[in-house]
Amino acid sequence: MKKYFIILGCLQAFIALGAIPAGLGYLSDTTGTGMGTSVELLKNSPFTSFLIPALFLLIVHGFGNVLGAVLSFRKKPIAGKAGFVLGLILCLWIIIQVYLIGLISFMQPLFFGFGVIESILSLVIFKKTK
């Protein structure tokens, strides 16, 4: 059981380590040019800049997964619920992103897979800590 918490915590830390710098990068330049993108990507979305996606990326995927990792590494029973929600949100984020801007990077399916793994590991933890 201990290994599931550790694996989940490592995955959550990895997701956070990707989301926090990306969120900060898009917040520092909401046009996306500093991150090698353009607001042109957002033409089929409800957004005119990267401000709202950057905030979501930073707060939910970044800080949310930091909190999830802390819960997981401390083997708190709520880690299962938190991880499941975070994994589900990550999967939905990627699905909506691909729908709105298209499949433009290998990182989209990669992080979708991370969300699936996060959700499955979290369900295992949740069922064993009931």
Structure description:
With 130 residues, the protein is mainly alpha-helical. The protein has one domain. The protein is 73% helix and 0% strand. The chain has four helices and no strands. α1 packs antiparallel against α2, α2 (51-73) packs antiparallel against α3 and α3 packs antiparallel against α4. The model has no long low-confidence stretch (mean pLDDT 96).
Topology, please?
Blueprint: H1 2-28, H2 51-73, H3 79-101, H4 107-128
Helix pairs in contact: 1-2, 1-4, 2-3, 3-4
Q: Briefly, what is this?
A:
The chain is built from 4 helices and no strands.
The backbone outline, from C-alpha atoms, is elongated
Distance between the termini: 13 Å
- Are there runs of 5+ residues with pLDDT below 50, and where? none
Structural class: mainly alpha
Per DSSP, what share of the residues sits in E-state strands of 2 or more residues? Answer: under 5%
Largest sheet: none
Q: Could you estimate the helical fraction of the residues in percent?
A: over 70%
Provide the number of structural domains.
1
Order of helices and strands: HHHH
Report the mean per-residue pLDDT as an integer. 96
Q: Give me the count of strands.
A: 0
Query: Whole-number radius of gyration?
Result: 15 Å
* Tally of DSSP helical segments: 4
